[in-house]
Amino acid sequence: MTTAVIQDTKMKTFEEMESAVRSYSRGWPTIFNKAKGYKLWDTDGKEYIDFFAGAGTLNYGHNDQAMQNKIIEYIQNDGIIHSLDMGTTPRKNFLERFNEVILKPRNLDYKIMFPGPTGTNTVESALKIARKVTGRDSVISFTNAFHGMTIGSLSVTANSFKRHGAGVPLHHTVSMPFDDYVEDQDSISYLERFLEDSGSGVALPAAIILETVQGEGGINAARMIWLKKVEALCKRWDILLIIDDVQAGNGRTGTYFSFEPAGIKPDVVCLSKSIGGIGLPMAITLIKPEYDQWGPGEHNGTFRGNNLAFIAATEALKNWESVEFSEAVQEKANFLRETVQKLIEKYPQLKGEARGRGLMQGIAIEEEGLAGKICAEAFQRGLIVETSGPNDEVVKFLPPLVIDREGLEKGLSILEESIIQVTA
Amino acid sequence: MTTAVIQDTKMKTFEEMESAVRSYSRGWPTIFNKAKGYKLWDTDGKEYIDFFAGAGTLNYGHNDQAMQNKIIEYIQNDGIIHSLDMGTTPRKNFLERFNEVILKPRNLDYKIMFPGPTGTNTVESALKIARKVTGRDSVISFTNAFHGMTIGSLSVTANSFKRHGAGVPLHHTVSMPFDDYVEDQDSISYLERFLEDSGSGVALPAAIILETVQGEGGINAARMIWLKKVEALCKRWDILLIIDDVQAGNGRTGTYFSFEPAGIKPDVVCLSKSIGGIGLPMAITLIKPEYDQWGPGEHNGTFRGNNLAFIAATEALKNWESVEFSEAVQEKANFLRETVQKLIEKYPQLKGEARGRGLMQGIAIEEEGLAGKICAEAFQRGLIVETSGPNDEVVKFLPPLVIDREGLEKGLSILEESIIQVTA
Amino acid sequence: MTTAVIQDTKMKTFEEMESAVRSYSRGWPTIFNKAKGYKLWDTDGKEYIDFFAGAGTLNYGHNDQAMQNKIIEYIQNDGIIHSLDMGTTPRKNFLERFNEVILKPRNLDYKIMFPGPTGTNTVESALKIARKVTGRDSVISFTNAFHGMTIGSLSVTANSFKRHGAGVPLHHTVSMPFDDYVEDQDSISYLERFLEDSGSGVALPAAIILETVQGEGGINAARMIWLKKVEALCKRWDILLIIDDVQAGNGRTGTYFSFEPAGIKPDVVCLSKSIGGIGLPMAITLIKPEYDQWGPGEHNGTFRGNNLAFIAATEALKNWESVEFSEAVQEKANFLRETVQKLIEKYPQLKGEARGRGLMQGIAIEEEGLAGKICAEAFQRGLIVETSGPNDEVVKFLPPLVIDREGLEKGLSILEESIIQVTA
Amino acid sequence: MTTAVIQDTKMKTFEEMESAVRSYSRGWPTIFNKAKGYKLWDTDGKEYIDFFAGAGTLNYGHNDQAMQNKIIEYIQNDGIIHSLDMGTTPRKNFLERFNEVILKPRNLDYKIMFPGPTGTNTVESALKIARKVTGRDSVISFTNAFHGMTIGSLSVTANSFKRHGAGVPLHHTVSMPFDDYVEDQDSISYLERFLEDSGSGVALPAAIILETVQGEGGINAARMIWLKKVEALCKRWDILLIIDDVQAGNGRTGTYFSFEPAGIKPDVVCLSKSIGGIGLPMAITLIKPEYDQWGPGEHNGTFRGNNLAFIAATEALKNWESVEFSEAVQEKANFLRETVQKLIEKYPQLKGEARGRGLMQGIAIEEEGLAGKICAEAFQRGLIVETSGPNDEVVKFLPPLVIDREGLEKGLSILEESIIQVTA
C-alpha cells in the first residue's frame, strides 16, 4: 500500500462524514492522539513541535500536570460539571482569584461576566452592552479585524470571505483603517476627522473594538501611541473602548493583557481561548462597573458555567502571581524576533517582513502562496505552524508560552529547512 | 448570625464580582458543589432533586460513572484536549458511532458539522448554510421561539426582552404563528397564504426554523400533523427546514430526535446541550449532503474540537443502541403527564394547563407571578425547577431522563407541597 | 405600409431612447396629445374614454377650465413658480382654504406638511415622523399594500417584484394580513395577538400604515369595522395610525378622505395624486399637532413648493364647499357597482368578483391573464382601463369623479364588448 | 403697529397651519409673489436679487418668457398634463431634443429614464439599477454628500442631522473621504486600499455615487484629476460610477454636465432641479445602454409624466445649441470668483476660504454662526443667499445662470454691505 493510499484511508472518516466546512484536518491530514507541553503526537506516533498552540488557546501548553490533577480530582469527587450561571465552588474560586491575581495588582476594576464559552460569544456580549449603555447602534472596527463568526461579531470582522459567508449584508458597523494601514497616511487623523465632522456620514459609534495585535488579520501589531490615541478619541466622544484580547491576551504578548504597555484602561475587555488554562471552552467579558447595566439574563447561554474550565483557569492564574512567567515570555519573544530577523536577511528571496509582538509573531512573505507552501512543508517535517492574513501571506508563530529555548530552536530549525526546501 | 445574613455572605463573591447579567444564582441563591444522577448538593450539604437538568443539558444525569471513567482515563493518558477541527481520535470515534447508532438506523443521511460548542453557534451555522444554499436572505421563525443570544440566532428568537437586548434592530427574519397560536385559527393556512401570494410582503425565505417543543417559549408542543404540513410547505417552495433540537433532542421527548414521530426529515438539524453527555460544551449541525456547500473554514470557531466532550458524547450513544432507554423515557413521561393532570384537577385555583411532550412538560398557570412563587418555594424545599414562557407563567419539568420513579415522585411531591404553601 | 409598421414607427422614439423601465407606453402604444374631462385623444385623433384617471390623479378630470384659467393667469403675471418652502401667495391661500373647506368642517386638527411633490415622498415623511415621535423603529404594513418605490415606502409595499427591485433587503417593517386576507380567519385577532404577546417576535411598531382601499394591491376595500379595530389597537399601544390616502383620498371613494365613514381620526394622513387638482405634482402630509415634532428642514425636498399645483389645488377645493360633489360621486359609484354585478352575472365564465368602494372598483377574474386581455382589447376599442393585483388579475375602474352617466355607460359598454370578444 | 407685529401677522398662516418642518420661510420671513429673471418681489413690493435660484432649480431664471409662452399655449390647447409614462407629444419631443442637443454632441450614449419628478427619486432609481446590474448591495458615497431625503438616497447622504431624521439605522452604504477631506492625505489611496484589500471590511460596492461639487455639503469642488481616478477605480473593479448632477448639472458649473472637464463618462447620471427649465418638478436618470436592465415598471411613480415640465425643459435646451451660453456662464463665474477673492482679502476677519466652481461658489467662514448672520443681513438688504456646509459655515452663491453683470455686481455689493454690517 502506498503512503498516499494510507493517508487516504486514515482521513476517510472525516472526509466521508464530516461537513465540507472542516479546515485544519485538510492542511494537517493526520489524527492527533496525545499532547504534552509544546509537543503533539499523532496515531502513528509521529512527534510534532507546536507553533500553533490551538490558535492561541494553549498558552500554558498541552496537558499541564497540575491542571490535569485538579480536574481529575474534581471529577472523581462528583463535582458539579454543568451549572449555567448557578453559584458553584469553582466559579466562586475563579472570581476571587482572578480579582486578586489579575485585576487588583493592575489597578483595574471590572465586573466579570460569563457569556457562552467561546470568543465570539464574549464579543457579542461586549457589543450588546456597549449599544445598551450608549443608546447608539453602530460600532467602529478596523481593517483586517477578526472578532468571530456569529452575525454580531462577524459584522465587526473584516475578511470578505468570512463576511460573505453570512449570507446577509452585515449592518451597524464601520470599518476604519488600523494602525499603519495606508502607507504614509495617519489612520488616527482619518478616524478623528470622521468623528468630529457632523457631515462625515459616520455616526458617533457605541464602541470602538480592536485587537492590539491582529492575529487572523496578519499579525499586525498596533503601536502603543496609536492605542493611546484611540483611547483618547473614545474618551472625547463617550465611545466605549472594547479590547478583544481573546487571542492576544492571557500573556501572549508578554503581559497578561496585551494593552498593558500602552497604559490604557479599556471599558470592556473580551477574553477567551487561553483563559480556560488547559484548552477547555471558556470566555469572560470584563466590564467597567459603571457600564455593567445588564438586566438579569439579558445575555445568556447554556454553557456559561463550564466548571472544569474554571478549575484549570484558576490553576493557570498561579503563573501570574510573580513576574517570572511574564519575563520568561518576553525573553523568548526577543529570541524569536531575532531569529525571524536573521531568517529574513538570510533568505532575501522571501521578501519577508517581520510582524508582531511577544510570542505572537510572523513573517509576511510577498510571493503569493509561498507562506502556505512553507507551512505545508513544515508539517511534513514535524512542525505545526499556520498562515494568517487576508491572502494567507503570513507565516504565524504562536508557540505555547511555556515552550523552552530548545523547543523554539528546534521549531525554527524545521522552519528554516522548510524555507530552503520550498524556495529551492 | 441570622440566616439572611449567612445567605448574604454566601453569595457575596457573585454579588460583588460578577456582572449584573447573572440570573440563576439569583433564583437559587446557594453554591452547588456536587451532583450525581438526578441529585445536587450545595456547600451546606443540602440535597436537591433536579427537575431542571442544566436546562436540558443533563439528560443522562450528573456525573455518569462510565463517562467520568472515560474522561479521566483520557486525561491521564495525555490525550489531546483542544484541537479546533484537527483530526483526533475522539472526534473520529464520535463521527463513526453517531453515524452507526443514530443516523443509519433512522435512515437519515447527514453530513456532520462541528460549529463552536454552544447552541447559538449551531443555529448560526444553520442559518448561514441555508442562506448560502438558497441565495435568499430571510428566514421564517415562530412566535415564542428561542434559538440563542448571538445576533444571528437572536434574530429568530421571539422574546422581546431578549431581542431588545441586541441594541440594534434585528433583520432578515419574519415571525409566523406557531401551532395553535391564535385560538380557533389555523396557523398553517396563514403561513401558506403568505408564501403563495407574491403580494404578501413576505419573501420566500431561505429556511423555516423551529423547535418541535418550544422550551423557553412556554413548553409549547407542536402537533405532528402541523410539523408534517410545515415540511410539505418547505418542499413546495424549496425552503430549507431547520429543526432546532438543541433542547428537545437527545431523547428529551422520548425519541432521539424530537421530530421522529412526525416522520419528517429536516434539511438541517441543530444539536447541542445533552449531545456532550456529561454537560461539557459541544454542538453539532447535521446537514443533508446536497446542502453541505460550505467552503473550508467558512464557519469556524476555536472550541469546535472539545475532545473531552466527544468522549462523553460517544459514551452517551450507548444508551441508544437498544430501544430500552427510549421506552423508559416514554414510560416516565406518561407518569409525569398523569401526575400533572391530577395536580391541575386537584388545585383548580391554579387554572393550570398541561403542556409538553416526553420529559419536557409544564403547567401553565394563569395568575401572574404564581408560577415563579411555586418554583421559589420548591427550591426552599429541595427541588430545582424553573419557569418558562413569555411571562414566566409556566412551571417547567425537565428532569434528567435517567431519573427513576422514586425521584420523579419525590420531586412531584415537593412540587405539590409548594403549590399548597403558595396558594394557601 | 401595414398598421403594425406604423405602430412601430410611432413608438420608435420611446423604444430607442427611453429606458426599458417604461411601462404604460407598452400597454397603450400610442402618443396622447390632448385631454378634456374624461376623454383623451392621441396624435391620430382617436378618442379614448378614461377609466384610469392618471392612476387616480385626475379625479377632477383633465384640463378643468377654471383651473386652467387660474394657472394661465398666474403665469402671465409672472407669479413665482418655484419656491421650495418659502412663503408664497399660492401656498398661503392653499393652507387657509384647505383648513376651512376640508379640515374644520370634519372637526380635524392637523398641521400641514409639504414634502416633495410625490406620493412616495409623503409616505417617507410619515414614516420618519412616526419613528421620531415614538422612538421605535419598525412599522406594520399590510399584505398587498402599495405605498411607493423609494426605499422607505418600498419597505412597506408588499409586492415581491417591486420589493426585489430594491436590490437590498428591506428592513424595519412587518407585513400583517389585511382585512379578509385568509379565508375564514380574522386578521384583527392575529394582529392583536402579535401585539399583546411579548414573545410574539414582533416588536411594538412606531406606526401602522394602511390604505383603506388597496389600489395597486387589487382593489381590496377594508370594512369600516376593521378600520375602527385597527384604530383601537393603535390607541391601546400608542402606535401612530397612518392612512395613506394618496389614491383613495380626494373624494375617490365618495367622501373627501376615504376613512370618513369609519369615524376614525388617523394620526397622520398622506395625500398626493389628485390633491394637485389638474394633475401637477404635489403632496401633503397631515400630522396631528402633538406629533408635529420635526426640526426645521428635517425632511425637505426641492420641489415642495410647486405653486402652479397649489393654485389648481385651491381651485379644486371649491368642489368640497357643498355636499353635492360628494353625493354625485356616490350616485355614480352605485351605478358602477350595479353594472359590475350585472356583468359578473352575465358572464359567469369570468368567475368574476366585485371589488372596491366609491369610484374605485374592480372585477377580479380568476383565469390567469384574462384581465389583461380584456384591458388590451378595451384599449383598441377606445377605453383606457388597467389591471391591478399581485397577478394583474383585477380589471380596475378609476374614472374621473367628474365623469357623467353617459361617459360611464359608454365606457362600460366598451368593456362589455371587450369581455365578449376576449372570452369568445 | 410695529414692524415686528406686521411681520408676525404676515407669516401667521405658515406658523399656525404649516408643520414645524418648514425651513426657508423662517430665514426669509416674507411672502413672495412675483419673479422674473434674477429678481423676486414679495407681497409688499420689495425687490430681491436672487443668489439662490431655487437651490439650483432656476438656472434659466424665473419665468423665462419663451417657456411661459409654450406652457400657456399648451394648456390653452388642452394638451394632456398628467400622463405617467404614457407616450405623449411633449415627452417624445424632449427625448429627441435631449438626445440631439445634449447627448450626441458630447458623444454620450445613454438611455433616458423618467423617475418621479424629484432629485431624490432619480437617486433612488440610480441606486436600484446599480444594485440590480451588479448583484452587490452596498454603495460608496462621500463625506458631506447630499443626495436626498428618502431612505435610499438618505443612506448615501452624509449629514448627521438629516440621517438621524430617518428614525432607523441606514444600511448598505459606506462613507469615504471626498477629495481633500483630511489635510495632507490622499483620499484616493485610502479608497483604493479599501477596495484592493479583501480584508478591509469594505465589500466591493455596486456603485460609487458622488457630486462633482458638493452643494449642501459646503461647496466642495473635486479636482478633475480626482474624478478621473475615481472613474479608473470604478472601471478596475466593475463598479458603476453614478454622478449626481442634480445641483451641479444643467450648466451650473459652466458646462452642461459638471463632469465634462474631467473627460469621464459616468455609468449613470442623475439630473433634476433645472432640467425642468422653469422650475417645474422633473427628473431624469441617464443609464448606459448595457446597464439599462430594468423590468417594465420596476421603478415607477405617478408624476413621472409632467408634460408642462417637458415643454419648458425642451425649450431650455435651446440654450445649449451653441457654445455662447456656456461661455457666458464661465465668464460670469470668473468675475464671481475674482470678487469673492477680493472680499476675502479685504475682510481678513472672515478668515474666508473661496470654494466652488462655475456659478456654484461660496465663502467658508471660520467663526461659528457668522455665515448665517451675513445671509440674514443680506436678506434684509434685498439679497437672497443661503448657507451650506455641515455647520452652515459657507455663504453659498448660486445665482441664475442668466444673471447679467449688473445683477451680479448688485448682489455682491449687498453682500459686502452685509459683511461690513455684521463684522462691525
Task: Give me a quick take on this structure.
Four copies of one chain form a homotetramer. Chain A has 424 residues and is an alpha/beta fold.
Structural class of chain A: alpha/beta
Helical amount of chain A:
25-40%
Average pLDDT across residues of chain A? 96
Number of strands of chain A: 18
Distance between the termini of chain A: 30 Å
Largest interface: A-B, 112 and 112 residues
Q: Please state the overall shape of chain A, judged from the principal axes of the Cα atoms.
A: globular
Report the biggest beta sheet of chain A as strand number plus sense, adding barrel if it closes. 7 strands, mixed
Radius of gyration of chain A: 22 Å
By oligomeric state, this entry counts as homotetramer
Strand order of the largest sheet of chain A: 5-13-12-11-8-6-7
Helix segment tally of chain A: 15
Low-confidence stretches of chain A: none
Share of residues in strands of chain A: 15-25%
